[in-house]
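Hi R.,

Here's the chain you asked about this morning:
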Amino acid sequence: MAGFRSLARQVRDPRCDLALRRYSLRKCLERFAPYGHRATWDHLCSRAGFDPEDRSVDPARLVAALDELEEARAVWLAYEVEFAERRRKEKHDGLRRPGTVDDWHRMTWGGFGVAWCDDPRVHPTEPLAEVLRRLIAALEREPGSSCPVCQGARLVWRHDLDHEPSSGPVCADCGILVPRPVLTPAALAESRRTRLLVSA
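And the predicted structure, written out as tokens:
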């Protein structure tokens, strides 16, 4: 099975036919897809300027989409290195029990679904790397009451998400499943109450 870097080389290789280059970009999303596979694909297509169903994409647009994905992946991999180093130090210092950020992080190891968007057409419009930087910054500070990506305050508790956890606070503005550790208990309670009001 090809890894992310070898797939990225195929996307860039002008000797590969266009179908293989497009396919390789889609396969990259099996290794790294911050919004989930379908939403990340929709995001990359809209940012690079081609239709998700287009089978004869301008190669320059494929490479532009790959560039954005690679930049975001570099941001996430750097965070994972820092996270692993912090956990090693904590274990060395006797802190064996992981916290809520650690619990969340285990479900997103490798970068799949770190900013899960259950509806593939509703996702942040900013570059992926910027979205991940905002999310990481929120994970490293005290919890707040709004979406760490768009600062939206309309958080709605949703059930039956196609992700783990299968329920949680979803930003009604940018569509991400907001990691619970970045929200205060009051913000989480309010999102649950909002779900009740919306479903009533």
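The chain has a mean pLDDT of 89.

Let me know if you need anything else.
M.
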